[in-house]
Design brief:
Elements (H helix, E strand, L loop, with lengths): L1 H11 L9 H20 L6 H26 L7 H17 L4 H24 L5 H20 L10 H8 L1 E2 L2 E2 H19 L1 H11 L1 H6 L4 H27 L10 H11 L11 H20 L4 H26 L1
Antiparallel strand pairs: 1-2
Helix pairs in contact: 2-13, 3-8, 3-11, 3-12, 3-13, 4-5, 4-6, 4-11, 5-6, 5-11, 7-11, 8-9, 9-11, 12-13, 13-14
Length: 327
């Protein structure tokens, strides 16, 4: 009887809150440090217009980064997201120019992105292709489709003003682009932290074999994260078309690397199964704030890339050193 009571008490005893590791809080500390540096180096940095501009221009790569995070957590990689962003961009512009309703055009563009994500997932799971090879192939193929659809020329005409105001407008003084960014991360947090599906993504990224032993549908999960990535990349393309008011066939070029950079400096490990939405959001802020600081101080674009590359190397070395200490 005593053993039963002891076991019952152990089960009902409140759990001690888990202490956050240095690797988990490091991205937030870097954001805080960059805020201080920005304030010291430029009088314009903390102006409200500049803060909103940082988030507004980060919206497109950040939304792509959310999708990339789902893929990487499941131990994958998606190099096609930049081209899929371009697909979303020109698809919505072409449909609007053809007279289709705004809602229909947006949904079709996002669905197109989801279709490319589905192709990626099937190539990887059913075709047994390495993720980097499969998504590299679709990256090249999707960009070719874009140029075929547009003849390589921007689409300036036929885009209604109501579509343009979707991103250029604001809600209670906050630019809509910023709202879309925050909503994307909020939804990702709920899914990954509070749903069975989110826990299964982490489990698959940790060990596919173990996940299968526990009855998880590994193939379905892997396909679904690529579909999510494709849909979010196309959504970023739609946002870009709305922000600029044109369909740009070069939209999204290089954004796959920006998205990977954002989540890596935010502590999401490319080996899969490790990373948080908060960390990824901090990664978005790190890249965006650092870029803004360099621009305000008239640092050349080429030098900016050197700083960003150095930041990725530093973060990866830090995470590797912490992992060695833990083991």
């Amino acid at each position: 009887m005593e053993n039963v009571m002891t076991t019952s008490l152990q089960r009902t005893a409140p759990r001690k809150p888990r202490r956050l590791s240095l690797a988990e809080v490091a991205p937030a500390l870097i954001v805080a440090a960059l805020l201080v540096i920005g304030t010291v180096t430029s009088d314009r940095f903390m102006q409200s217009n500049n803060i909103f501009n940082i988030l507004q221009y980060a919206a497109e790569p950040a939304i792509i980064a959310v999708g990339m995070m789902f893929v990487v957590l499941a131990r994958g990689i998606d190099l096609s997201v930049g081209s899929v962003m371009g697909i979303g961009n020109v698809t919505v512009a072409l449909l609007l120019a053809a007279g289709y309703p705004i809602t229909v055009s947006i949904m079709a563009a996002i669905a197109f992105g989801g279709l490319i994500g589905l192709i990626n997932g099937l190539l990887i799971t059913k075709g047994r292709m390495e993720p980097i090879i499969a998504t590299l192939a679709t990256m090249i193929g999707a960009r070719s489709v874009i140029y075929f659809m547009t003849d390589g020329a921007p689409l300036f005409s036929g885009i209604p003003r109501d579509f343009v105001t979707i991103v250029r407008g604001n809600a209670l003084g906050v630019p809509n682009g910023v709202v879309f960014l925050l909503v994307a991360f909020a939804v990702a947090y709920v899914i990954l932290r509070h749903t069975r599906y989110g826990r299964h993504i982490y489990a698959v990224g940790g060990s596919e074999e173990t996940a299968e032993l526990f009855g998880m549908k590994v193939t379905s999960i892997k396909i679904s994260v690529y579909v999510i990535s494709g849909m979010l990349a196309a959504t970023a393309g739609v946002i870009g078309a709305s922000r600029l008011g044109i369909g740009d066939p070069n939209s999204g070029i290089g954004y796959e690397l920006v998205a990977i950079t954002m989540i890596v400096v935010g502590g999401v490990r490319l080996a899969g199964g490790v990373g948080t939405v908060f960390g990824a959001f901090c990664g978005v802020l790190i890249v965006s704030i650092l870029t803004n600081i360099l621009q305000l101080n008239n640092v050349s674009t080429h030098a900016q890339h050197i700083f960003l590359g150095g930041g990725v190397i530093a973060m990866m070395l830090f995470l590797s050193s912490r992992e060695r200490r833990e083991h």
